[in-house]
Target: Prepilin peptidase CpaA
Amino acid sequence: MLKIVVFINSLLVLLFIYAAWTDFRTWKIPNTLVLALVTLYALRAAAVMLGSEDVGAALFASSGIGGDIGAGLLMFMLGVGLWALRLFGAGDAKLFLPIGLFIGWHGMLPFAVLLLVLGIVTLLVLRLPVPLPVAHLAFFMRIEEIRASRKIPYGVIMVFAALLTLALPIVRQ
Model:
């Protein structure tokens, strides 16, 4: 079961990076990508449950599947509220669900702190001028488009905060 969870986590990182890239390039996060992430969580939850000796604890503990689902739903409701206030796009609001599922209840505080720090850093970086020797590169041209439109692809910030939150237990060891 451990190999399956490791494989799912590898796919998770790739899908999150793809979500960040598509949001950066197009300001859109496809529904199919969000559904793929939710499906990936369901597969991981099934693998964890099948490999667990105490199914009740795996299901109902705050660090188990119940806590993950609670975090996902709470973050999704927050995303919908921000979308209703026109502070977020619909894709960003939808992306909160799988992020909440994967970081879980105990990862919400580190995620919020990382999201705040990365958001501030992004706003500061967007104020810096692009160096002339690299201004013609596609990446920096896109940064200029983002700066000119004043629309920030929040999905990029959310994904990197989520990946850092998921990496925290690994770093602590």
Summary: Residues 2-172 form one domain. The radius of gyration is 17 Å.
